[in-house]
Recover the amino acids of this structure.
């Protein structure tokens, strides 16, 4: 099968959440099919990564992306009534590239609804990898933001949802990362086809440390210009960590991730907070950690940060938002703590009772071994693509 894969970012190397999943999809597809990629390049690193994909036998067209320029280009959407997202991730060049090659492929696989817009003008087998409804994310943002951002986010939720409904009914399948996301989709957009393809974690790469943890070291990993990560770390650093340090003065939070915003960089001025910025290998910090924290107050789907912490054999303390897609049993495979009081209580207990943390980490590792090996979670991928193609053959 010849597959065209559309992505918001060049899907390599797998060094952030969306790239981890998109690269794994492509790597799995490449085993049995020919894959070509069209994606935005967010800087020179993405241009270089596209060349690496070419060398791996995955022809890749990388279209330069300039965020400020794209924001300006999205302004007409305010007049037309369309979602700003389609302006921010709109591109006449990408549309031309898709139009040029689409006749020669058997299936188009789009990663994120904004990329689905480029295949919408065409007929033929199409799979939309939603992960989650992006419009729902904007709804969550609107509930947290203040004026005037709350109005902008609320508008984006409404307009993007209308587009997602149109897209969902036009394609052959809509893929989600958890049954919860699928159910939300089915409730909001009844009658549209859907499947579940869960994320995984590299169990050979993320393995428990062989040395004791650094007492009191809490680690958060994630791209630090992503609003849910910023919101969670700011809240934790200001509302939770100071109270933990009252009982455990040496407790520290290490925020590990690229592109920290000015607001995140300011957190490094607080007692006990370290902001690393980009690091080559997050395991260097996870190996030293006593606890992996995931205090996200806005989140859906499966959080790679939580899965990676569990695979490392760490006790993970998260919120309902950051753990609801994982499955398993709260209190046995991870700890759910919503609100500052619950976070302080859970983390202090783990710091007081290291053996409890070790037991939780062992159970977490066993759980991801049984449920989140990429070979297991992606077993359904070929069948999803084959069903899409078969649907069109039958109608023809």
């Amino acid at each position: 099968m010849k597959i065209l894969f559309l992505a918001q970012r060049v899907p390599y190397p797998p060094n952030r959440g969306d790239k981890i999943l998109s690269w794994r999809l492509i790597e799995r597809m490449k085993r049995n099919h020919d894959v070509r990629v069209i994606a935005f390049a967010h800087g020179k690193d993405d241009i270089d990564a596209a060349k690496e994909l070419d060398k791996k036998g995955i022809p890749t067209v990388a279209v330069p992306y300039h965020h400020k320029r794209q924001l300006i280009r999205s302004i007409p959407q305010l007049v037309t009534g369309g979602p700003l997202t389609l302006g921010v991730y709109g591109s006449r060049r990408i549309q031309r590239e898709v139009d040029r090659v689409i006749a020669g492929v058997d299936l188009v696989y789009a990663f994120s609804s904004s990329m689905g817009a480029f295949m919408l003008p065409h007929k033929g087998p199409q799979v939309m990898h939603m992960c989650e409804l992006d419009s729902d994310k904007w709804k969550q943002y609107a509930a947290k933001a203040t004026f005037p951002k709350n109005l902008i986010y609320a508008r984006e939720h409404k307009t993007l949802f209308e587009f997602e409904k149109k897209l969902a009914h036009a394609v052959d399948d809509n893929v989600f990362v958890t049954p919860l996301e699928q159910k939300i989709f089915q409730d909001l957009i009844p009658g549209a086809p859907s499947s579940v393809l869960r994320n995984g974690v590299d169990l050979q790469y993320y393995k428990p440390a062989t040395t004791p943890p650094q007492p009191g070291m809490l680690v958060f990993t994630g791209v630090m210009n992503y609003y849910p990560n910023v919101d969670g770390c700011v809240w934790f650093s200001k509302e939770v960590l100071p109270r933990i340090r009252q009982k455990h003065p040496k407790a520290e939070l290490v925020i590990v991730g690229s592109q920290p915003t000015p607001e995140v960089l300011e957190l490094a001025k607080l007692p006990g907070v370290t902001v690393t910025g980009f690091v080559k290998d997050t395991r260097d910090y996870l190996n030293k950690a006593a606890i992996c924290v995931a205090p996200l107050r806005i989140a859906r789907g499966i959080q790679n940060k939580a899965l990676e912490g569990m695979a490392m054999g760490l006790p993970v303390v998260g919120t309902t938002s950051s753990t609801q897609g994982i499955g398993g049993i709260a209190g046995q495979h991870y700890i759910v703590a919503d609100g500052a009081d619950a976070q302080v209580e859970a983390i202090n207990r783990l710091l007081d009772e290291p053996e409890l943390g070790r037991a939780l980490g062992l159970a977490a590792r066993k759980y991801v071994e049984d449920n989140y090996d990429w070979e297991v979670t992606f077993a359904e991928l070929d069948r999803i693509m084959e069903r899409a193609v078969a649907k069109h053959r039958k109608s023809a």
Summary: The mean pLDDT is 96. Residues 217-373 form a domain with the Rossmann fold fold (CATH 3.40.50.2000). The two ends are 18 Å apart (CA to CA). The chain has two domains: 2-197+378-395, 217-373.
